[in-house]
Specification:
Blueprint lengths: L1 H6 L5 H37 L7 E5 L4 E5 L7 H54 L2 H7 L1 H23 L1 H19 L1 H48 L1 H6 L3 H26 L2 H25 L5 H42 L19 E8 L10 E8 L4 E6 L5 H6 L9 E6 L2 E2 L5 H6 L1 E4 L10 H5 L8 H10 L3 H5 L18 H14 L4 E5 L7 H14 L4 E5 L11 E6 L2 E6 L1 H7 L1 H22 L1
Parallel strand pairs: 5-10, 5-11, 8-9, 9-10
Antiparallel strand pairs: 1-2, 3-4, 3-6, 6-7, 11-12
Helix pairs in contact: 2-3, 2-6, 2-11, 3-5, 5-7, 5-11, 6-7, 6-11, 7-9, 7-10, 7-11, 10-11, 15-17, 15-18, 19-20
């Protein structure tokens, strides 16, 4: 897990390494302080009792400003005591100031590296998602990808900052303090050898049981976010059906599920503090009892016990810190795993090796089978053989679920076939680079999507270098120019998020104009005139014919009037091609086409009769 986190620090290695070095220096200086204090206290105790030195003493003679060394067995005069207290007091101040300085800079560098890590992870996630096929996005869901790019990245950032700072500091403090404690008093150091493993067992026990609970909580968090996203996108439907109370109750239920999952994990985590406190204070009590006895028997001095108490506190606090880190890493591990699940996913669709461009727009489907689940027993399209010549206009009709959209999405490789091949200009679409293939294909999807910004900015998605004349020509062909100019700001009208201030039909026409600006060799209109009237639909088809005469056009429609003038019409039935022909041919030979045509003619006649009445 740590290796995965460190991958995200690319470009911030210098700050990360410096943070580690400064933390080590800060910790080493903190560990020195009890030793310096111990020397002062021991010297004062020996002076007050009139005893001789039990160990070598080195201090600075401030009057002569020179270093003096007194060997074991030397007497302690008042000037020796004064110089010792001043010398080691100054060293303590210097150590404390340096430790604080190193800690401050370490914190600043850790924050910089953490922010850089967060930036890298979000950028890497976004870039990876851009490479995903529709199948990859379907696997993770939009709500889950949003959660991973926000909440999970924040959790991972906290873990990264903890690793380069606290994860280094706690073990370093534990090791340095343990070494100093053993040097200072080997007879008392055994207490730590008992307390530390006990704390480690507690930490390991809780960590292994909490991780699955937090993973489960994040899944429920994804579901809650999915419901929020769905409600925001469909807010008009919610209000139209007066379902606000129902949605609020459902959301409260989702948040309650998240709360219960989090509480279940936290109940285990709260056991950490009392268990650690019992072990920690037990060790301190044992140290006081045994150390006090040793002082009374003259085996150690008061300063030594004071230092051991400090080292005991540092060691046990280090272990507590390690326990806390373990908890945080356990909590973050689920987030980190979810991030790398995305980053390590291989996109279903990868670039081909050919540099070929789409030139004529001829399309061939050869023995194509397709399944969204890649399951040959659950085919969406089966045995598709279809040839579309360059410049032809082809209509596609069929019932809901018959595979119309699935068929055309294979052309720009939004999905790949299970069997067979799709050829564009005689070349398998798998061999094209995705950029070149999709540059040659414009597709107006069933769901019309506009982005925040002005009408002009949205249209320039089709061609960022388009002139005003080209923009207006495309909009006129799509029957969009007139309604655009009816707005006070014309092409500079702000559409708002998702184009909330234009109607469904206007949205469709803007999307068609945007696709035309791309000047593609292949244009796919996936039921993209369903929200406009038949007269406007006819005008758009005429505009397309006049604007791009050599463009291969595929029109998916529910209305036969939208496709009856096409060069040929493909009738799909349950994922198979039922018939291919002109309008006149299909009226004579295809029962499905006849049924749809007659039902629409009857509906039009009845509507006309009602209007006349």
């Amino acid at each position: 897990m740590i290796k995965k986190l460190l991958k995200g620090a690319k470009g911030y290695e210098k700050q990360s390494v410096l943070t580690v070095l400064l933390v080590l220096l800060e910790t080493a200086l903190e560990v020195v302080l009890p030793l310096l204090m111990s020397t002062i206290l021991n010297t004062m105790q020996l002076y007050s009792q009139g005893e001789l030195l039990k160990d070598k003493l080195i201090y600075l003679d401030w009057s002569a400003f020179k270093i003096v060394t007194l060997n074991e067995g030397s007497s302690i005069a008042s000037d020796v005591l004064t110089n010792t207290v001043i010398t080691y007091g100054v060293l303590m101040i210097i150590s404390a100031v340096l430790s604080l300085t190193f800690g401050t800079f370490a914190g600043r560098l850790a924050a910089t590296a953490g922010a850089g890590f967060s930036k890298n992870m979000r950028a890497n996630l976004f870039a990876k998602i851009q490479d995903f096929s529709f199948a990859n996005v379907d696997k993770f869901s939009t709500a889950s990808l949003v959660t991973r790019s926000t909440t999970d990245v924040n959790n991972a950032q906290q873990s990264f900052m903890m690793i380069i700072r606290t994860v280094i500091r706690a073990p370093a403090m534990l090791i340095f303090s343990a070494i100093m404690a053993i040097i200072n008093s080997p007879n008392l150091a055994w207490i730590f050898l008992v307390a530390v493993p006990l704390l480690g067992l507690v930490m390991g026990f809780l960590a292994t049981r909490v991780h699955p609970l937090f993973k489960q909580m994040l899944k429920k968090y994804d579901k809650m976010n999915a419901d929020v996203q769905e409600d925001l996108v469909a807010i008009r439907v919610v209000k139209a059906f007066v379902r606000e109370d129902y949605e609020e109750a459902k959301y409260r239920e989702q948040t309650e599920e998240v709360r219960k999952s989090q509480l279940k994990a936290e109940k285990l985590m709260v056991l950490m503090n009392p268990l650690v406190s019992v072990i920690m204070y037990g060790a301190i009590i044992a140290l006081l009892v045994i150390g006090g006895t040793d002082i009374a028997n003259g085996r150690i001095q008061a300063g030594t016990l004071s230092a051991m108490m400090s080292y005991c506190t540092q060691i046990l606090m280090s272990v507590m810190m390690i326990c806390f880190i373990a908890v945080q890493l356990v909590m973050s591990r689920a987030s980190i795993d979810r991030l790398y699940e995305v980053l390590e996913t291989t996109p279903d669709i990868i670039d081909g090796d050919s540099d070929k461009l789409v030139e004529s727009g001829a399309i061939d489907f050869v023995n194509v089978n397709f399944s969204y689940s890649n399951n040959a027993d659950n085919l969406t399209l089966e045995g598709i053989n279809l040839s579309i010549k360059s410049g032809e206009t082809v209509g596609v009709i069929g019932g809901t679920g018959d595979g119309k959209t699935s068929l055309v999405q294979l052309i720009p490789r939004f999905y790949d076939v299970l069997d067979g091949e799709v050829l564009v200009d005689g070349t398998n679409v798998r061999d094209y680079s995705l950029y070149n293939l999709r540059e040659g294909v414009s597709m107006v999807l069933q769901k019309n999507v506009l982005f925040s910004g002005t009408i002009r900015e949205n249209l320039l998605w089709g061609n960022k270098d388009a002139t005003q004349e080209e923009i207006e020509r495309a909009c006129k062909a799509a029957c969009a120019h007139d309604f655009i100019m009816s707005f006070p700001d014309g092409y500079e009208t702000d559409l708002g998020q998702g184009g909330v201030n234009v109607s469904g039909g206007q949205k469709q026409r803007l999307c068609i104009a945007r696709a035309l600006l791309k000047k593609p060799k292949i244009m796919i209109l996936d039921d993209s005139t369903s929200a406009v009237d038949t007269a406007t639909d006819a005008s758009i088809r005429q505009g397309l014919k006049e604007t791009a005469k050599d463009m291969t056009t595929i029109i998916i429609a529910q209305r036969i009037s939208s496709v009856e003038n096409c060069d040929k019409i493909v009738v799909l039935d349950d994922g198979k091609i039922n018939a291919v022909g002109t309008h006149e041919q299909l009226i004579e030979t295809c029962s499905i086409y006849q049924e749809v045509y007659n039902s629409q003619q009857k509906a039009a006649a009845e509507q006309g009769g009602e209007s006349n009445a």
